[in-house]
Input
Amino acid sequence: MSISLSIILDTRRIKQKTNKYPVKVRVTFKRVSRDYQTIYDLSKEEYDKLTAPRINADLQIVREGLKEIQRTAENATKDFLDFTFHEFEKKYIVDNRFFRPRKFRNVEAPITNYQFDFSSYEQKFSILKEDQSKPDFISTVYISYIKKLLQEGRIGSAFNYQDSYYSLKKFRSNLPFAEITVSYLIQYEQWMRNKDCSKSTVGIKLRPLRAIFNEAIEAGIIDRKRCYPFGRRKYQIPTSRNIKKALLLNDIALIYYHKPICVDEQKAKDFWLFCYLANGINPKDVAYLKFKNIEGEYLVFERAKTENTTRNDPKPVTVFLTEDILGIIDKWGNKNRKPGNYIFPVLEEGLTLLEQHFAVRAFVKFINDRMARIGMELGIEKKLTTIVSRHSFSTQLKRSGASTEYIQEALGHADKKTTENYLDSFEKEVKKEFAAKLTAFKHNDLKTA
Output
C-alpha cells in the first residue's frame, strides 16, 4: 500500500488578511491526491527558508509544527489495513489542532425520530447486504442513497440504482471512487455494447453512477476536481437517437374499432385507449386515480413522476371526460365510488409501497403483452406499449395545430424541453412533407411547352 505525504505551499490564491499562502499536507494514494490545510500561512520567501540552518524564532515554531504533522501523519497511515481518505480524515484530520476545521459529513442516512425498518425490502434489495465498511467505495454511497429513496417511497428509482450498481459490479467488482476513471467508463461502455446493449441502456446504467458521484462529493468523501470523471472533455454519458414512437391516426382507428376475441384483450385495449384519450396518462397514474380526482366533467390529477420535483409549483393535469373515457370507467372501474376509493381495481387499500410497485408493473405488463398480440393481428409494426399511447396523444395534438405549450400542460411536463423531445420525430416528419411539396409540380399532369 503506497501512501506518500508531503508539505506544500498552495500558491494558487493568496490570503487577503495575511497576504500569505496556506501551507497544506498533500496525501497521495493510488495516484489520487488530496490536500489538507494546516493552521500555518507563509510567504514564498518564508517557505523557502524552512530548510535553512538558521531562521528566526517564529519560523522555527512553524518548522517544528510541520515536522510534527509529517511524523504523526505518517504514523497514522501505517495503522490502516485498507486506507481510504474518508477514514484518514475522520481519524487524523478532524479535531487535529494543526489543521483548519473542514467540512466533514458522514454518508450515513440522517438521524430521524424513528428508525426506518428496511427488513421488508431486503429480499428484493439484496444490495442492502453489500459491504458498507469502506466509505469511499461506490457500494457504500449506493446503499445510502437507495435507503433514502426507499424512505421517500421512490421504489422504482431504488430498483434503477440497484440495477446500476450490480451492472458495474459484474463488470469489475465493487471499487473505490478513485478507480472509476474516464478510461474505466469507456471500457464499461464497450463491454456493454459487446453484449448488444443499446446506448440508451448504457445511459440508464451510468446516470445513477453520476448521481452517486455527486452524492459523494456533497458528503465530502471525494474531491470533484481530482475524482470526477464526467462532463465536458471527460466522459459523456451516451444518449440514444429519438426514435419515433407515435402511431398514425389510421393505426389508432384500427385499434379503436378492433373487436378482441377474449376479455383480457378487450380490457387491455380499453386501458390502452384510456391512456391515449386521457392526455397520454402514464399507467402508474391510472392505477393511483381515485374518484375524488373526478371534478365535474374533468379528471384532475398530479403525475407521480413529478410529484417531488414540482412540490413547490404543482402542475395538475386536467382531462375532459369524454364519452369514451366515461365508458371505460363504467366498464372496468370499481362499483363503490366513494371519493377515497381507487377508480380502477389495480391497487387496493393496505398494500405496502413495494406491493404497490409490483402491482403497477403487473398492470403495465398485462396491457403491453396483450396489445402486442392485437398489434400483430392488425398488422401494426410498432409495439403498442403504453408509452406509445402517450407519444401518439402528443403527436396527434401537434398535428391538430396545438401549441407546444398546450401539449406541455396536457402531458404534465415540468420542462418544455421534455415536450420538445416527445415532438422531435413529428417535426422531422413535417419537414419531410414540406420538402416534398417544394417539387409537387412533378406529379401534376401539366406540361410546359
About this structure: Residues 119-227 form a domain with the DNA polymerase; domain 1 fold (CATH 1.10.150). The chain has three domains: 3-93, 119-227, 249-435.
